[in-house]
Write the structure tokens for this entry.
Amino acid sequence: MANLLTAARKTAQGQRGRTSTEDVDIEGVIRPTFLAGRLPTIKRSISARLGELVSATSMDGPTARSYLLKVKCVREHVFTVSSKDLLRGCWCPPCAEAAKRQLLVAALARMGKHAKRLGGKCLAPAYESARAPVAWSCAKGHQWAASWDNVRNKKSWCPTCARAASRFR
Ligand SMILES: [Zn+2]
Ligand SMILES: [Zn+2]
């Protein structure tokens, strides 16, 4: 039995050089399983996102329905993900976090630009959501709180200036 395993490992190692991680589980033993058939799909999905498959380990023995994958993204972060989640669209957590941060920074910049066009300022330290009330100031230095949603879509601006304008009408 030990010999058989060693032989299998040797074969696996020999083939690993040529076939990378294909069909190789954590012990280096090649076995035809349900999973083997999924590897091309998994690899296509990874290379479509410019990533690289580092290793694939079957998660729970010969009846495994999912791989635990180690994947390297285009920015060289190495992360682990189950093949099930990967095929569902999950990808590199640090990249997702960075992309989210970038979106938040862009959203805050949009709010700032909008306020500047109206002669005022957006005083929010960071973007949270379109519905969260944040502080604004108008050209006259009045300050009030309103959500980005209200300011952008409902075209609301300084309530103090609005009240003054309606008094003069
Ligand atoms: Zn990444
Ligand atoms: Zn005002």
Observations:
- Helices lie at 2-19, 39-48, 83-88, 93-117, 148-153, 159-168.
- The chain has a mean pLDDT of 82.
